[in-house]
Specification:
homodimer, mainly alpha, Arc Repressor Mutant, subunit A, Tetracycline Repressor, domain 2, 2 domains, 10 helices, disordered N terminus, DNA-binding
DNA sequence: CCCATGTGAGACATTCTTGTCTCATTATGG
DNA sequence: CCATAATGAGACAAGAATGTCTCACATGGG
């Protein structure tokens, strides 16, 4: 069926391999290519036919993470309604990708190089715009910069993903823990 | 002066080496033993005379990080005054160790093994107790568990340390950014 | 049935890091 | 000045992970 240099149904397998690798590397970020292959139920040779090397695999995972974040952002409709509710929706939609995000967040390989994926900047811009809108609408305080709020969203997401893996936080509490801390902080609100 | 198998002033050098390694590994967590040695201004041979291997070096850095956190916790006097101010003091005192903390936070080697340093549990207990006190005093909300608040403190500290290294957050704003977000969140307070 | 394609298993060289060793040089104290 | 200790430089082997290759097997369509 395929008259080119690539296998017919590689695209389907490729996605499965990518998901398996994400699940494994989330738990053990130092996993070997051999372990990644085994986790996907394929041989190392086949894994290399999908991804030229470990670097290519990590880059593909980065692209997947960016895509999932952008999809989550789309589903969250960040321009709609109050910024507060938009953040809550965003955190809820981003939870399935939190593990992958946490892995990428700790993968220094992606940040040390001078050439980093533009997707992150696109994401930063969109999320930053959400926080900025909240500030302009008077919902969010203005002494915390949108850049920092964006960074905090990533950080809390990764932290909660790890805490969930360790069992220190229940998975079903993820959206509440992240969103409510990010929005309201630890302080008790005055009942007014 | 030394009649034993160890050099005379190694203790002094050792601390300097440890600090250099912390500073380097904070920026580049995959740095080689050779790079660590060069950063400390010593040869790889001497580095090995201080620390048996990379693992021992990381363990020593872990011990240093724990010690610095405990010292910061002591200086912050977490039992004194309002829990809110105690958290602010803690964040301020912990800033100098934030880079090291961020490195250790991402060093999976320390968490994957079944044997982890008791120091972290001691720290978790003390910080968790601070948040619990705040809850009992009615300062902090009770729908976020002390365990999660502790985790969030670590996560925000690491995130802000990285953001500071990248220049996305000014170092002088570190205490405000971390403490105010952790305490008050992004939402604007009602002026009452 | 035959052939092309995808796959698994394994061998192999390469590279990188580490750990260990020796030896010459330096400085340090008596 | 001398002896000891500490260091730096470099050689060396061991180990791990990677990238590449070959070959045998099976699987599916024509």
């Amino acid at each position: 069926m395929s008259h080119m240099g690539y296998p017919c149904f590689m695209a389907l397998d490729r996605d499965h391999v990518l998901r398996s690798a994400a699940a494994l590397l989330t738990r053990k970020s130092t996993a070997t290519m051999d372990e990644v292959a085994k986790a996907a139920g394929i041989s190392r040779a086949t894994l290399h036919r999908h991804f030229a090397g470990r670097d290519a695999l990590v880059r593909a995972l980065e692209a997947l993470g960016i895509a999932e974040c952008e999809a989550a952002l789309d589903r969250a409709r960040p321009e709609q309604g109050s910024a507060t509710d938009a953040v809550r929706r965003l955190v809820r939609e981003i939870q399935p990708a939190a593990g992958l995000l946490a892995f990428l967040y700790g993968e220094s390989q992606l940040w040390e190089g001078d050439r980093q994926n533009d997707g992150w900047q696109r994401l930063d811009s969109r999320i930053g715009a959400l926080f900025q809108r909240g500030q302009q609408d008077g919902e969010f305080r203005i002494d915390l910069t949108p850049v920092w709020l964006t960074e905090a969203l990533y950080g809390l997401t990764a932290s909660c993903a790890w805490a969930t893996l360790d069992g220190r936080v229940a998975a079903r509490d993820f959206p509440t823990m992240v969103a409510e801390l990010l929005l309201g902080g630890a302080l008790r609100r005055e009942e007014s």
